[in-house]
Amino acid sequence: MIAEIMLAAIVLAMPVPDQSQSAGTYRITYYCQACNTPAGSTATSTGRWQPGYSVATPDFEPGTILEIGGREYRVDDTGCQSGTVDILRETAPDGSCICDQGEVTYQNVYVKGEL
Ligand SMILES: [Zn+2]
User: Is residue 12 pLDDT above 70, yes or no?
Assistant: First the structure.
């Protein structure tokens, strides 16, 4: 009986699981208007273009909300290879690219939901 009460107390003390689900580790890269294909284009497969929030990946449905490194993003484009999440960045004030094309990290991606 005491053991059952202690077990119940332990279960109640466990943290409520987060609603987001881990989708595993993805290759994280960056792009911007200047280095988009074609260069200068703000075209995306969904028409949504929001630097700092939009990402491109073929692995999630458009509109899916992802959490990467504690920040929230939305899948607005598909133009990169599977296993990659390409994060849209602002260009420099003069419109030039300041993406470090060599900047590649591998991070856990969490799915927070869909629009
Ligand atoms: Zn760029």
Answer: no
